[in-house]
TrEMBL record:
Pfam families: Glyco_hydro_1
Organism the protein comes from: Streptomyces umbrinus
Enzyme Commission number: 3.2.1.21
Keywords, comma-separated and alphabetical: Glycosidase, Hydrolase
Lineage of producing organism: Bacteria, Bacillati, Actinomycetota, Actinomycetes, Kitasatosporales
This protein's name: Beta-glucosidase
Family recorded in the similarity comment: Belongs to the glycosyl hydrolase 1 family.
Molecular function in Gene Ontology: beta-glucosidase activity
Length: 400
């Protein structure tokens, strides 16, 4: 076994990602806040203060910069900017602009996500993405966010994981309260068309206002692997859950690749991982090289013209040594993809902080631990190690 290194391409993004609702705390006007406090929803615990990053974002950025990271992906909370339909908060827009300026002052390049799963309660009450005029309402919100990304922001993500939005909508329409043992529910086609339309309209709006901004969106890649005889079944299964969203990004400035594990497909459909495999705190199979497969598949679908950025990749574990091992395997796969000619322009880990993972604080993905009472931040050894790679400008690669 030999150990080699791959040098970062010029301008390579090296950072960590977060989402507003998962770290800010007290997003009382979002649809998720209402869901968290509805006994019928069966949510294990509410977000409440989360990581209190709404007030402590400077501490978060200080730590990331000190660790050696050069990029930070964070999101704007629509429910804060437009808590009531048509009523926009100038204070909240100024708050997110201060975050951009704070990142730049610390040497962190901000990647701004405009929508990361949550919507205002009033938008949900209208019917969400499939309501009449939903696309126009989203574009109006995007337009109002113009001051946030006016200067110093190079990368903007319109919508995070639109395929998962469509999957969740499909599950809700089918009355499913949980996911199947393997694979994903069937996406809602109407929602799929709506979020694609919203993305493409938002891209036009952003480009008209900020021609220097590079805009794209991020896709959740499940790394569907066909077992013998299941090649066509796998392609048919994957297309509505993933490929249609990758195809919709053709012509964008970049596409975000997000992966954590894999899903095997047999002729009869998805196959659960064996009982004896190592699993993470989310019960996903421990499979560090997933991101390499995700990059290669995305490049195959979208073509060579669209740059790839790993915008999320990580592991939920209480054993930080396993996190280092996971990242080592993942980065080796990224390095191999770069050496094979893929246009990979960045790697952002999920997540900067141990945060609220959509119903529970127990799945700890963070590079930085957060005390739930004092909110003290403590960088884990994995954060120190991963940040140092950014300073060294090299990706590790292990070859057998």
């Amino acid at each position: 076994m030999t150990h080699t290194t791959t040098r970062f391409p010029d301008g390579f993004l090296w950072g960590a990602s977060t989402a507003a609702h998962q770290i800010e705390g007290n997003n009382v006007n979002s649809d998720w806040w209402r869901k968290e406090h509805d006994p019928a929803a069966g949510i294990a615990e509410p977000s409440l203060d989360a990581c209190d990053s709404y007030h402590r974002w400077e501490q978060d950025m200080d730590l990331l910069a000190e660790l050696g990271f050069t990029d930070y992906r964070f999101s704007i909370e629509w429910a804060r900017v437009e808590p009531v339909r048509g009523m926009f908060s100038y204070a909240e827009i100024a708050h997110y602009r201060r975050m951009v300026e704070g990142a730049l002052a610390r040497g962190l390049r901000p990647m701004v996500t405009l929508h990361h799963f949550t919507v205002p309660q009033w938008f949900e009450d209208l019917g969400g993405w499939t309501a009449d005029g939903a696309v126009d309402l989203f574009v109006r919100y995007v337009d109002r966010c113009a001051p946030v990304i006016a200067d110093g922001v190079r990368h903007v993500c319109t919508i995070n994981e639109p395929n998962m939005i469509a999957v969740m909508a499909g599950a809700a329409k089918a009355g499913d309260k949980g996911f199947p043992p393997a694979g994903l529910p069937t996406p809602d086609e109407e929602t799929t068309l709506a979020v694609i339309a919203a993305h493409q309209a938002a891209v036009k709006t952003i480009r008209a206002q900020h021609p220097d901004v590079e805009v794209g969106w991020t896709i959740a890649n499940q790394v569907y692997q066909a077992l013998p005889g299941a090649e066509q079944v796998t392609a048919d299964y994957r297309h509505p859950r993933e490929d249609v969203f990758i195809e919709a990004a053709r012509g964008d400035d970049w596409i975000g690749v997000q992966s954590y594990t894999r899903t095997k497909i047999a002729p009869e459909g998805p196959v659960p991982a064996p009982d004896d495999v190592e699993r993470t705190l989310t019960q996903w199979e421990y499979y560090p090289t997933a991101v390499g497969h995700a990059l290669r598949h995305t490049a195959e679908v979208i073509g060579d013209d669209t740059p790839l950025i790993v915008t999320e990749n990580g592991i939920a574990t209480a054993d930080d040594s396993r996190r280092v091992d996971y990242y080592t395997g993942a980065l080796g796969a990224v390095a191999a993809a770069i050496e094979d000619g893929l246009n990979v322009q960045g790697y952002l880990a999920w997540s900067a902080l141990d945060n609220y993972e959509w119903g529970s604080f127990k799945p700890t993905f963070g590079l930085i631990a957060v005390d739930p009472t004092t909110f003290e931040r403590t960088a884990k050894p994995s954060a120190v190690w991963l940040g140092s790679l950014g300073r060294d400008r090299a990706l590790p690669r292990t070859e057998s």
